[in-house]
Design goal:
Blueprint (H helix, E strand, L loop, with lengths): L1 H34 L1 H29 L5 H23 L1 H29 L7 H20 L1 H45 L1
Amino acid sequence: MSELIADARSAFKAVRISLAVSGVLALIAGVVLLVWPVKSAVIVTGIFASYLIIAGLVYAGLGIFSSSRGGWARIGHVVLGLLYVVAGVIAFANLGAAAATLAIVVVVFIGISWILDGVVSLTLLGSDSSRIWTFLYAVLSVIAGIYVLVNVLAAGIVLWIFLGISLLVLGVVQIVRAITLGRDAKTVSAALRGDAA
């Protein structure tokens, strides 16, 4: 039974540590997003540009060194790899402009996806049992999507602030969960000792 108690303690400890670490990281990320929004956007863009270059090199390598693939597949991998590398280098050349472009693309994508989601919901009205709620959701989704597309800059700022606040709140919640999980671990250990006696 003491082995079971030790296993339970180590499992709780591992979960507590992962909750605490993820909570602290989310909290720090939220503070950074809210305190330095432009710098954090540039950092995110730099990470994305690094990913593009690495993915491009991998694709190019697959095309060059993969003898089992056909000629068109190899050429496609090399071309795709070169496009990724070029995009990453262009992003690194002016991270500020790339960050703004990336933000605009993300916000426009969100606006378009909300409009499409609303239109798809409208097509489901005939087969949906909750027509009023579906109609309300569809109309709000289309209106929100149009608003986002018309006010891209304002929507981008609001989404960035919302992301920062969400990370702050989630970080605090994760840290509190890690603390309260310690109490739960003591309760479980005591219960297991009580069962053993």
